[in-house]
């Protein structure tokens, strides 16, 4: 299949530029498009066969439900039933925006979309390209991230093409995504709204709007399966094995980690704060990328850097953890999953294994 690329000109009429893509969606084809979070792989969300194409293109497990995207607030009504007070409040405060709500589904929703569950995930994106594409397609658009399952999510059209060229009908190039990590998913069908996936709408923002909000324990404890079916799978993973170092002495321990890896002849990628990167020796086998000055900047660039490490042919990646306040909860969720939960805690001159495995080159006297 030849994949068409539409390079948008924001100064020209958007509807005319998106009409061909919308017609392909209507015909049951797959089209990737930008949202404010990441690029989505879109299909008619009420067409079972079209939605099955998403699973085939991504290599996505069948028990991982899809998110339906709508273009107007009222479009949730025919797709859902018994909306809770918390759902209505979140719609009022956070839509359009990077928030996905789990609600009771209506009979309109195909089983393939919900993986057989009696609930459905619905989002109203704020990105104008996404919004107009949904409206022109005249249907809710089912759209997970437009990457092969398990790889870092795409935040540019080029990232999408790297995974999907020749597999899907088209890609709408609307520029780089603003937020860079996927939407927050909140289950509104339970007595206390529960975060199933952290994202651009933070815990603090939800608590301010709703009061009590819970976090799915599966997001915190590695040995507990998350409530959201897709979150039990490895996600956001670069090709090279990755380790995450957290704790008060992370900069010093990352320096030792990197020096030992390079001493073993490994080419190592480092994703860390500038102060940590400045500690590293000047060596051609060290490829470093600076977090940036804010968590928003790190979130925006996280998947870009993880994909870049693939093209830079590193043998190993080490990332530096950050605090979980505000957007940090989403960032750390993505980084821990990118590392396959290979997590080390740096304190008192030691690296303490939290979960996963440790690399062979770390000496016993450095570990606890």
Report on this model:
It is a single chain. The protein is α/β, with parallel strands linked by helices and 368 residues long. It contains 11 helices and 18 strands. The model has no long low-confidence stretch (mean pLDDT 93). It is 30% helix and 21% strand. The protein has helices spanning 14-26, 48-58, 85-94, 111-114, 128-137, 157-164, 203-210, 250-263, 274-278, 295-311, 328-338, and strands spanning 4-7, 31-33, 40-44, 67-69, 80-81, 99-105, 119-123, 141-142, 170-173, 184-187, 194-197, 214-215, 241-246, 268-272, 286-290, 316-320, 343-347, 350-355. It has 2 domains: 4-221, DHBP synthase, CATH 3.90.870; 241-366, Rossmann fold (3-Layer(aba) Sandwich), CATH 3.40.50.11030. The radius of gyration is 21 Å and the shape is globular. Helix 1 (14-26) crosses helix 5 and helix 10 runs parallel beside helix 11.
User: Span between N and C termini?
Assistant: 53 Å
Structural class: alpha/beta
**Molecular shape:** globular
Quaternary state of this entry equals single chain
Number of strands: 18
The secondary-structure element order is EHEEHEEHEHEHEHEEEHEEHEHEHEHEE
Give the class-level CATH name of the largest domain.
Alpha Beta
Give me the CATH superfamily of the largest domain: DHBP synthase
Number of helices: 11
- Low confidence ranges: none
The percent range for strand residues is 15-25%
Radius of gyration based on Cα positions: 21 Å
Using the coordinates shown, work out and report the CATH topology of the largest domain. DHBP synthase
Overall pLDDT score: 93
């Amino acid at each position: 299949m030849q994949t068409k690329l539409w390079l948008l000109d924001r100064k020209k009429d958007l509807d005319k530029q998106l009409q061909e893509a919308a017609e392909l969606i209507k015909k049951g084809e797959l089209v990737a498009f930008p949202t404010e979070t990441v690029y989505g792989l879109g299909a008619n969300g009420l067409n079972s066969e079209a939605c099955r194409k998403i699973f085939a293109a991504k290599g996505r497990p069948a028990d991982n439900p899809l998110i339906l995207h709508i273009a107007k607030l009222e479009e949730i009504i025919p797709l859902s039933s018994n909306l809770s007070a918390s759902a209505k409040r979140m719609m009022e405060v956070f839509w359009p925006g990077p928030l996905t709500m789990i609600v009771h589904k209506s009979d309109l929703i195909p089983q393939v979309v919900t993986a057989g569950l009696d609930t459905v995930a619905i989002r109203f994106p704020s990105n104008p390209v996404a919004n107009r594409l949904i409206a022109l397609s005249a249907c809710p658009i089912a759209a997970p991230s437009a990457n092969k399952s398990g790889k870092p999510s795409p935040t540019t059209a080029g990232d999408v093409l790297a995974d999907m060229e020749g597999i899907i009908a088209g890609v709408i190039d609307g520029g780089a995504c603003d937020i860079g990590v996927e939407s927050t998913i909140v289950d509104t069908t339970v007595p206390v709204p529960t975060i199933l996936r952290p994202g651009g709408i933070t815990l603090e923002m939800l608590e301010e709007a709703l009061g009590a909000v819970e976090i799915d324990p599966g997001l915190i404890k590695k040995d507990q399966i998350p409530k959201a079916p897709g979150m039990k799978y490895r996600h956001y993973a670069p090709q090279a094995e990755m380790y995450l170092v957290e704790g008060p002495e992370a900069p010093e321990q990352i320096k030792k980690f990197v020096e030992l890896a390079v001493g073993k002849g490994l080419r190592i990628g480092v994703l860390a704060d500038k102060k940590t990167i400045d500690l590293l020796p000047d060596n051609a086998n060290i490829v470093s990328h600076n977090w940036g000055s804010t968590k928003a900047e790190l979130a925006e660039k996280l998947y870009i850097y993880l994909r870049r490490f693939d093209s830079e042919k590193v043998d190993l990646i080490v990332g530096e953890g950050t605090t979980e306040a505000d957007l940090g909860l989403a960032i750390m969720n993505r980084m821990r999953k990118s590392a396959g939960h290979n997590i080390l805690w740096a304190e008192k001159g030691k690296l303490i294994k939290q979960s996963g495995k440790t690399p062979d080159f770390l000496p016993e006297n450095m570990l606890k």
